[in-house]
Amino acid sequence: MNSMENLEKQLICPICLEIFTKPVVILPCQHNLCRKCANDVFTASNPYLPTRGGSISSGGRFRCPSCRHEVVLDRHGVYGLQRNLLVENIIDMFKQETSSSGGGAPASERKEESPMCSVHEGEKINIYCVTHGAPTCSMCKVFGEHAACEVAPIGSVFQSKKSELSDGIAMVVGNNDRMQGIVSQLEEACRVIEENGRRQKTLVCEKFDLLYSVLEGKKRDLSQKVTSEQDEKLTYIRGLNKKYGEHLEESCKMVEHGIQNMEEPEMALFLQNTKPLLRKLTDACSTAHLDKVERGYENMDHFSVEFTKEGRALKSLNFLQDDEDEDEDDEEEDGEGEAPVTSPSASTST
């Protein structure tokens, strides 16, 4: 295969950088060119000579693109150059050998797929300008803007760039795999954070519910105490009110008896009834045997609660434990069992 590659290099035209296209002409300096390439070089070197049928019909000159030797042509132009039949036969043998060995279509057939040059009409883009990093045509290299540039066969550059692109794609694909792994990790982190947040909010609510239950118990106990004292005072006041009512009713009866006795005309009978009646009237005016309600007895203000101190304590309290606090709590639980839930207690003033 190496011998075939070396042979192919010897069959490359210095103008189009592809395998010579028949017919192949041999220059006086013994260098070979495709007739079309030789005609293109000759035409570009002699732009003012008259043409006939697309080729120059009179003599002219141009320089060999390989050795810069000046080639003088007669009136037949490039058609007056001798064909190199040996090279043409070798090209035919090379193409047959390449086709039989599965090497694919020869370069001369593949070049038909090349795009055309936008500067030189009818010229295919068949070489690569290494200096500017762009594909171009043979005429651009010989006479155009790429004349002083370094060029290379477009096939070799194609394989090199294709390999470079393949390596770049492989590198990006590998990087994409790593990025996808990072994205998956971040998505998993989001899921874990959401799950941990929900679980922790549930635990926090449970802890605060326990604290609320303690406060609710304190409120219930204090409310029961207020209700108990209220019932006790109401029972006492209602009993005392009943006693005063009965005493008032008896007094009213004594007044009626006194008025009736005042109307008694018989003096002896009047005097006989007056003595006990006066004693009863005197007793009716006395309330010494009845209890007196103390001033402020109905007041219930001593059950008022004050949470100013506890409120400040709650506002300044940090419910989040540090690692050291958690370690201390773990030690206390190991030594004393489960610690009871603590909460601020309501203070009562008597």
UniProtKB/TrEMBL annotation:
Zinc-finger recorded as keyword: yes
Composition bias, Acidic residues: 321-337
Molecular function terms from GO: ubiquitin protein ligase activity; zinc ion binding
Pfam family, one: zf-B_box
Gene Ontology CC entries for this record: cytoplasm; nucleus
Localization per Swiss-Prot or TrEMBL: Cytoplasm; Nucleus
GO biological process, one term: regulation of microtubule cytoskeleton organization
Keyword annotations: Coiled coil, Cytoplasm, Metal-binding, Muscle protein, Nucleus, Transferase, Zinc, Zinc-finger
Protein name: RING-type E3 ubiquitin transferase
